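Notebook p. 47: complex prediction with zinc ion.
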Amino acid sequence: TTIDAFIAGLPKCELHLHIEGTLEPGLKFALAERNGIELPYADEAALRAAYDFDDLPGFLAVYYEGMSVLRTEQDFYDLAAAYAAKAHSQNVRYAEIFFDPQAHTARGVSFDTMIRGLTRALDDAGRATGFTGRLVMCFLRDFQAEFAMATLVQSLPYKDWIVGVGLDSDEAGNPPVKFREVFARARAEGYRMTMHCDVDQKNSTEHIRQVIEEIGVDRIDHGVNALEDPALIAAIREKGLGLTVCPISNAHVTDGLKAAEIRALLDQGVKVTVNSDDPAYFPGYVAENLAALRPAPASLTDADLVRLQRNAIDISWAAPAVRDRFL
Ligand code: HPA
Ligand code: ZN
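Predicted complex, structure tokens below:
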């Protein structure tokens, strides 16, 4: 994909980015070596060749396996610093960054280790470049709700950094309502709320209905299948819920960029945004994702690109000062 000058220069806001999904093969090898971990791949090319998945569970297996190299505070620092530098290079001014604490605490890395590394990197990057990053804590939906609740409690001392909570991982058999109490508590604690409704899953439209009507989220991650039910689109518009769509990710876990759907969402006045999801695995950061939508059927014009960024800052949970600087 070629990134044209307009896309390169456009000030950007990213709202759907998993920090563990930015672990590039080069950094993965470097961290493995620093921590004395033997990776089952000869080199970076062999590792990239193993990034061969065609659905969500296939991706998730590779994604969780890759995290094993993240052990120390410095590892989390290096991971977030690399993303912040990449984001700055693409003129991303503000990002809300998902992290998956349970994927780390479940293998013996402490919540403090992880959060200190991530926040110190974002702090340093902010001072150096003006890039602003905030965290959104995702619960893993394939674990029990009790584990999510305990993780929510662990996060409370870090509310200055964590602007909201989300829900990700394997959707099959793990509907939004499984986490009803956890999200009610999160809301009471002042967190904003989003949930993944991944594209083309079994029960996608029912899950979208649940996140709107039963959970009361502030926005929806992916959520493209709402187009199958005009009542869902009407509810999304009426409540001003944004959708954080990830075209290159879609092309890897289902069929195609969903470019026609993104066009339709824009044309129907939904606050849709374009994001990169897991750019080390679904190759392409936010500029590449935008560039992929220049051709038909998305046919994004310069005005559409500006609208996408306005939508993003509008549905973001950024502080007023960040918002004002952006617009
Ligand atoms: N969907 C579900 N879980 C995830 C994703 C995703 O796109 N990325 C990282 N965890
Ligand atoms: Zn995601």
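Notes: The chain has 16 helices and eight strands. The chain has one domain: 5-326.
Next step: compare against the earlier run before touching the bench.
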